[in-house]
Design brief:
Strand order of the largest sheet: 5-8-7-12-11
Number of domains: 2
Structural class: alpha/beta
Number of strands: 13
Order of helices and strands: HEEHHHEEHEEEEEEEEHE
Distance between the termini: 55 Å
Length: about 280
């Protein structure tokens, strides 16, 4: 009898929820909160989704579909805002923790999330219709960057060798192979030596809202075997293998003694700032 009672209670609750969701109005309790889909660190884009149900029969179906779609978009943007807060800012904090220090920054972040654009709308039929809206936020979009809080940017910090002669002119590219390591991407990663002293630190979003590029970023592995060598002339690329991930949140890249010496020598010898690519798996 106890099992029968529990089954009846569960069935009753399910019927009540179904009746609410398909009563013709889109209620907040019927909107499915979906966790953010992904962040592409190689393109600096975030995609999230939100969904809602609407009744597929009766009058004003098109109106109910429009209401559901708007609700789904609102939820997608809310999910986007929540996910942005979970992103690592640097090796010791997340974006949400950083913004708590200044309420104005939270408003800027929400305004930034609202600049996301709808990239896909999916409707799945059944007893009713499930509308799922996907939105994308491009962190390099000029309009989006106008709303970015200042803490997302950072002035480039690098260690230079004293009295080192400028030998490299033209493009200077340093690829740091971190494949196979448990590296957590962050907005402001650091490259450190074995003593955890910072060799290089910068934001993947540049130094400010008006900055046209960043000198550090993430890329995916091509699968080909890299040749680990030092730059010997202009317009060449140097490969360095990372030793391990470091920092409280595992976002920093630690180089061994040899790698740190080569890295510092190259960035000190370059007339212009080098482009640094952190290669992830």
């Amino acid at each position: 009898m106890k099992k029968i009672f529990m089954f009846g209670l569960i069935l009753c609750c399910s019927l009540n929820l179904t009746t609410e969701c398909f009563s013709g109005s889109v209620r907040d309790s019927c909107v499915v909160r979906m966790k953010a889909t992904s962040m592409d660190w190689t393109r600096n884009t975030v995609v999230t989704s939100g969904s809602a149900f609407f009744k597929a029969w009766g009058e004003e179906v098109s109106h109910k579909a429009g209401v559901a779609e708007r609700q789904a978009k609102i939820r997608a943007i809310k999910n986007l805002y929540d996910f942005l807060g979970e992103i690592y800012l640097d090796s010791s904090t997340t974006i949400s923790h950083a913004q708590k220090k200044n309420p104005g920054m939270a408003r800027d972040l929400f305004a930034m999330a609202q600049q996301a654009v709808v990239v896909e709308t999916v409707r799945t039929s059944g007893h009713g219709y499930l509308v799922e809206v996907f939105v994308k936020l491009d962190l390099w979009d000029e309009q989006v960057r106008l709303f970015m809080p200042d803490f997302l940017f950072a002035r480039t910090l690098k260690r230079n060798l004293k009295g080192n002669e400028v030998l490299l002119r033209g493009d200077c590219v340093i690829n740091i192979d971190a494949t196979g390591l448990e590296v957590s991407p962050a907005i402001i990663p650091s490259i450190t030596d074995e003593h955890l002293d910072i060799l290089y630190r910068a934001s993947i979003l540049g130094s400010g809202q008006r900055s046209g590029k960043s000198n550090i970023g993430y890329t995916s592995s091509s699968g080909s075997e890299p040749v680990f060598r030092t730059i010997r002339s202009h317009d060449q690329t140097m490969w360095i293998r990372a030793d391990k991930a470091s920092g409280e949140l595992g976002t920093d890249i630690l180089l061994d003694a040899d790698g740190a010496e080569r890295f510092t020598r190259v960035i000190s010898s370059s007339k212009d700032d080098c482009s640094i690519n952190i290669i992830l798996k």
